[in-house]
């Protein structure tokens, strides 16, 4: 029923589209990630050959399973119509505090437990905590998935990785509440936190850009909420954006894209993101903040606009509503290039599988 039209991957075409070289000859898809439950369900739905080899991508592969896991991910993403897949680093752990609760998601999508970041006080609240914290060493990161992609991805396929979690990791390590207090009570510690986190993220970015099939450095840094920036925009511009700029410069020096995923309303920092950081595209759009079609009209002549089929809409709409929404979005966003079809955030496991597939199928058949 879904995705019967033939698809051939073209990561260079994806790159040209994001850079707005021209109106593309087909619709390009992109996602920050697909939840593992979605990957499993889609592989089973289409009876793909490696469907039993999907595991938590953050878990180190057991002996002999890396090749099978990567083949499963490749087969699925290519079938669904993606030109690039995500490579995950191993041995790159940032220890933070999390809370847990029962997962209320029904049926096979239930994980038993769900966890989320403790927004109170994190593991670092003093200089002593800062000195004792087990900071990750980018030089010791296991890039075996990157090596696999470089050697075994077929022609037309590329890969990407997430980095530049600047505010996210400062917040994870200090707690959002802790950071807000420390901005006023311990500004020197806050400066040191942004510097240490930024340096590590820059070093990691340098590790990954030399691969020939590596297409995009995807900065992932939630800096906003529904009403505005999570902390003062002047603080973000001073302390977080310079590290994004360094990562973007590394990407561009190696002829790679620099994409930015950030949730929330970022109007107060969009100009420095575009003019100073020089992001190639922005991802994560929510109807209650700014519909993706409006983002295209506002910024689409300067940067790529990615995704934006609203998550809440995808959960609640029926197939015909989804197809209509996708078609209307493409009518507005595709001309001139710079747009890739996808969800407003990520393919979460609570999105009905057939709703997600309807979105992809409408895009596949658009042109």
Describe the structure.
The two termini are 18 Å apart. With 367 residues, the protein is of the alpha/beta class. It has one domain (11-364): Alpha-Beta Barrel (TIM Barrel). The longest helix has 22 residues, at 187-208. The protein contains 14 helices and eleven strands. A seven-stranded parallel beta sheet has the order 1-4-5-8-9-10-11, sandwiched between helices. It has helices at 11-18, 36-45, 66-80, 127-132, 144-152, 166-174, 176-185, 187-208, 233-253, 270-277, 292-299, 311-316, 319-333, 353-364, and strands at residues 84-86, 98-102, 113-117, 158-163, 214-220, 224-225, 228-229, 257-261, 281-283, 304-306, 339-340.
Topology of this structure?
Elements (H helix, E strand, L loop, with lengths): L10 H8 L17 H10 L20 H15 L3 E3 L11 E5 L10 E5 L9 H6 L11 H9 L5 E6 L2 H9 L1 H10 L1 H22 L5 E7 L3 E2 L2 E2 L3 H21 L3 E5 L8 H8 L3 E3 L8 H8 L4 E3 L4 H6 L2 H15 L5 E2 L12 H12 L3
Parallel strand pairs: 1-4, 4-5, 5-8, 8-9, 9-10, 10-11
Antiparallel strand pairs: 2-3, 6-7
Helix pairs in contact: 6-7, 6-8, 8-9, 9-10, 13-14
- What would you say the CATH architecture is? Alpha-Beta Barrel
Q: What characteristic shape results from the CA principal axes? A: globular
Total tally of structural domains: 1
Give the topology string: H per helix, E per strand. HHHEEEHHEHHHEEEHEHEHEHHEH
What number is the mean pLDDT? 94
